[in-house]
Amino acid sequence: MTLTVGVLGVGHLMAHVVPGLMRADSPPKVLLSARNKERSAALAERFDLEICGDNEDLIGRSDIVTIAVRPFNVEETIAGLPWRAEQTVLSFAGTVPLSTFEPHVNGADVVLAMPVITAEFGESPTSVWPPNATVEALMASCGPVIAFDTESQFKAVSGSGAYFGWVQALIMEMTDWLSAKGVPEDQARAVIAGMTRAGAVSASMRSDTPLPELINDLCLPGSLTGQGLDILKDAEAFSPWRAAAESIFERHVGKL
Questions:
Q1: Do 220 and 137 belong to one domain?
Q2: Segment-wise mean pLDDT, segments of 10 residues, the chain, 256 residues
């Protein structure tokens, strides 16, 4: 039986997640809310999807309902709707905790998840808690799904979407540097983005090899990689990254 997914809140994130869901070999039936009329209309036209007249209709016809509204709008959005115990509420609403949903959803399962916009290309790592086989199967077409066993683990990774943005800033910095050396901007961007992706693929696909070993294999005596890494270490270039991550963690702790 085809799963029906209701999308409550068609904002920037869902404009990229919905195409990811439609990448599946057997995509779900997707119902869109009319909360953002322009985005809903664009997705409906692109994938031949239905826009529901109201949220009550959307909830009443859905097996899974994604919540992707601003955190401060979540409670007013979900309150008073005809939730059913056999449904699953899938929240993409940042730091909003399970306890916010539970009084309103009539016993439905609530799952928190953190995809990013590369879901559109099947390249979003999606953190999920608590584990839920149906949600994990649904999100698999958007990229790798990492289900966590404890709330504390999910809290620790809940700000990883910010890291995704920081990496793009690093790509921009190195693209600008390479362009300044006379390389056309589009080619510089392709090279730097490609090398960044290659590093991620190596770390991911060679998961049996400890990360220090992967790095040491590239930093042989006299190597260019080693020379540059020494400069970065001497400048304590990685410390601000840890500080930025810690600031995000502190902001999230206690909110989930």
A1: no
A2: 94 97 98 91 98 96 96 94 97 89 96 96 97 98 97 86 95 98 98 98 96 94 94 97 91 64
